[in-house]
Amino acid sequence: EDNLILPVLSVGGQGVISVASHLVGKEIKKMITEFKKGNLNEAIQLNKGLGKMYKAIFVTTNPIPVKSALNLLGMEVGSVRPPLIEVTQAEKEVLIDVLKEFQLL
Is the pLDDT of residue 12 over 90? Predict the structure, then answer.
């Protein structure tokens, strides 16, 4: 889970398979870089700043939200396949809000 990137690094983890990086990859890279430089406080602040994104892209089952977000950004990654279903309107609003907050939309 993306919200565990920093804790995993702190116990010796060497990498990440990230969902959020499809949307905020540069920010995640910066957090990891700051951690590796020994700037723990900076890494913690960056991680906290990403919290809303982490929460929003897991508002429902992965990969539904991230595909929806990418489509909203015009990347046209298509729809999910059964048995998955598209995001609800309420979930879509959560995604739109966080995309706007991160100045992606």
Answer: yes
What is the reported pLDDT for 7?
A: 95
pLDDT per residue as tens digits for the range 35-76: 999 999 999 999 999 999 999 999 999 999 999 999 999 999
Give the C-alpha separation, 23 to 9, whole Å. 21
- Rounded Cα distance between 15 and 13, Å, is 6
Q: Residues in the chain, how many? A: 105
Query: What's the predicted TM-score (pTM) here?
Result: 0.90
Structure tokens at 16: 């990440």
> Is residue 36 helix, strand or coil?
helix
Question: Where are the extended beta strands (E) located within the chain?
Answer: none
Helix axes 21-37, 64-72, angle to 10 degrees: 110
- Give the DSSP per-residue string, 44-83: HHHHHHTHHHHHHTTSSSTTHHHHHHHHHTT----PPPTT
